[in-house]
Amino acid sequence: MRPLLLPGIGVGLILLLAMAAPLLPLADPVTQDTVNRLAARLPGSPLGRDEFGRDVLSRLIWGAQASLQVAFAASAIACLVGVTLGLLGGWLRGVAEFAAVRFADVLLCFPPILLALLVVTLLGPGTGTLIFVLSILYLPNFIRVTYAEVLSARNQDYVQAVRALGAPTPRLLGLTLLPNIAGPLLVQFSLAVASAVILESGLSFLGLGVVPPTPSWGLMIRGARATMDVAPTLLLWPCLALSLTILLMNLLCDALRDALDPRAAAVQPRLRAIDRLLPGLAPPPQPALLEVRGLSVEIATPKGMVRPVEDLSFTVRAGATLAIVGESGSGKSLTATAIMGLLPPAARAAGAAWFEGRELLSLPEEQRRKLRGGPMAMVFQDPMSSLNPVHRVGDQVAEAILAHRPEVGAAAARAEAVALLRRVGIADPDRGARAYPHELSGGMKQRVMIAMALANTPRLLIADEPTTALDVTVQAAILDLLAKLRAEAGMGLVLITHSLGVVAEVADEVVVMYAAQIVESGRVAEVFARPLHPYTRALLAAVPDGEHEPEGIPGVVPRPDSWPPGCRFAPRCTFATEACNQAPPALEPALGRAVRCLRWRDLPA
Amino acid sequence: MLFVARRVAVSLILLWVIATIVFLSLHLVPGDPAELLLSTGGAAPDAALVEELREQLGLNRPLWDQYVAFLQGLARLDLGRSLVDEFPVAREIATRLPRTLELILAGTLIAVVIGIPAGNYAARHQGGAFDRIAGWVAALLQAVPVFVLGTLLVLLFAQTLRLMPAGGYVPFAQDPVRHLVLLALPAVAIAKGIAAIVFRMTRASVLDQMARDHVRTARAKGLAPHLVQRRHVLRNAMIPVTTVLGLQIGSLLGGTVLVEYVFNWPGLSTPLLRAVEGRDYPMVVGIVLTVSALFLLINLIMDLLYAVLDPRIARS
Description:
The structure holds two protein chains of two kinds. Chain A has an eight-stranded mixed β-sheet with strand order 6-7-8-3-9-10-12-11, with helices on both faces. In chain A, helix 1 crosses helix 2, helix 5 packs antiparallel against helix 7 and helix 8 (217-226) packs antiparallel against helix 9. Chain A has two domains: 2-25 and 48-262, MetI-like (MetI-like fold); 289-375 and 458-595, 3-Layer(aba) Sandwich (Rossmann fold), CATH 3.40.50.300. Chain A starts with a helix and ends in a 10-residue tail after the last strand. By secondary structure, chain A is of the alpha/beta class. In chain A, a hairpin with a 2-residue loop joins strand 1 (290-301) and strand 2. Chain A is elongated. Chain A has helices spanning 5-19, 56-92, 94-107, 112-123, 127-153, 157-164, 169-205, 217-226, 232-260, 332-340, 365-371, 383-386, 393-404, 410-423, 429-434, 442-454, 472-489, 500-506, 524-529, 534-541; strands at 290-301, 304-316, 321-325, 347-355, 358-359, 376-379, 460-464, 492-497, 509-514, 517-523, 588-590, 593-595. Helices cover 48% and strands 12% of the residues of chain A. By secondary structure, chain B is mainly alpha-helical. The model of chain B has no long low-confidence stretch (mean pLDDT 85). The radius of gyration of chain B is 24 Å and the shape is globular. Chain B is 78% helix and 0% strand. Chains A and B meet through helix 4, helix 7, helix 8, helix 9 and helix 11 of A and helix 1, helix 6, helix 7, helix 9 and helix 10 of B.
């Protein structure tokens, strides 16, 4: 949150000074004294005298009073009338709604100062005219804020409830709605006051606002312009006073908006950089396609360090499919982004991951970039948001080609993109290539994402829940496509999913993750035939197989900042004993696989 | 095309509504309009003069007739004659409008050239020294009213340093260099508000885009960082910047009135201010309508630009 205190005190002081003007021992701001015109400094006049010999300090303070009176009066009138119109419009709907909202829209079509000048022409300059025209100018904002709040509030439960109790409408409006819109209104009010001070001073500067000899900052700047060459400080004081007041008011507005209008505030926790752990491991003797050893991901949060991925190890062989399974929040996607080098700035990867013998985590960014989208590619979970909405999909695929093979040239890359789109099963690839993402269905978009990943014939493809965001009917088609392409191209596939049903269909090996850790890993056939970890069992029981009712797992994955002290699955586990809650179990070899459970031997087969 | 047609139609309707409000404004004020325009201070105006003004403004005719005549005049771009010197309002506007437009264009250009790269850089180095300093500069610029900045520029560059002329105007055809020198300070004064807004919006919107999934996709392609930034972050970030700029145009147009006054730039503001002081109603109405139409036109252009930037708008 922005500091509210400092600008608050500043604005408060200015207001106090302006209000106290009659009480302060100041010279009369309008008494002229031509003998001392433009005098630099006199006893009782620390800032000197102006072009008519009037005391500058006194005029500054009285000028603040004039400006602020106009600004507050206009804002208060605009607020009262605007809130009334907004309430009526939002509550009564129909004609009142149309009138209030359209009225606000039309008023916003006038450049503010011109509307003001039109009114001044008709009514003549003066404080009354100023207040009238400024209150009209700020009316639309209050109408809009109130109207929008009423619309959203009238559907909320408490308003419905009070209404059902038979409360009469005016009371309902006054007692239940107003307190809720007080915050946004206060923000609007402060914005209106700040803006009114600017407009009032501008109009006075043009000689069309406050009427002389009443002191006003705008008028003071207007007057001092003529004597700029002999008395430049005369110009500086009102400029400074005006700008400082507006600066403090703007800061106060920002702070108020952050504090009272949470939807408008953007909260961005600042994240610390974290030390990176040493990989500290020797490369494996026989380079596999992907060899992950002791991979962890750490994120610094305001509450401290969390490790949403912890000490992960697995191997992907060329041409094989490895599935990583687990519920949402188990750390699957972060594992994938860590391997690709696409972690968000706040997260750091530790451990080691070798791709064809090269250690990825210690590779310079420029070299990792050349691997990404080239030899190793990734398909993301949500095709709706993963394509850029403002570029044609063909161009986005061609861009992937050109990123790694610029020698292909733009025209050939586009042709290749069309061929890729045909390969992933887009019916009319020529037309499809010219489409924007929003013109394609979810399944089509995911096919485009896959085409993009295949653009440079990768040897490793990581697919992060590629079907989660899609319709059930499309899911099978996308999985079949991935399996087919993997077989055709002989590439290794890492498939991240929360569904064991998918794993059984396409994967050779499986890694089951729970709360950042591997709980079981091994060959798919063996794991399915005899799951050793209770979590794997629970996941299998949750797969609908047509014979048994699928069983859900009670509870949710704990958050990385609140892991249980012992086995992380123990609180949700039907087999857990007291020992499970004492100390975290280690990942141990069992029947040719690995399992992290104290009781795997005791479980019923 | 349908989108363009619809937006143009909406703009025309709004223009008609504005014209109607401006027309009615004279009659909505309580009291006799002619007397009102002639009254100065508390003294009652001369009856003969009032009658003459009534005749001149056609106030003796039924309201409906006046309205139809007003709209017919608008359709022919006939905005009536000045009450002061009988000069046709439309012709006065025609000579001065291009100068105001030039000022707005120059100011916007300066603002965009400074605001967008600065906002982009600040976002990419969020929390860094440049980001913090630029944030404060933008806050300061937003706090200094445009006429204060203009006056201070005159004080500094013309009065104290004697580097630049204090103001004035020379036609481009007559002396291009002098023309541009005279354009510089007022254009900078106009630019200050736009630059601060463009900077803040670009920064916020680049930060927002950098966290988007499609940017991760672009990086997953192995695209070079500068291309990711240009094609997938900045390109998309321009969409909200355009919207906000369009919303702010109204107050920026108002700013030109003040800037022209400060720098003696002979655009629309000189006759406008003279007319407001002299209660020259036809001239004020003509200029207010022209600037409002300009406002609508700029907003229309912004909307069309927005549709070009964001293909989702035009086709939905």
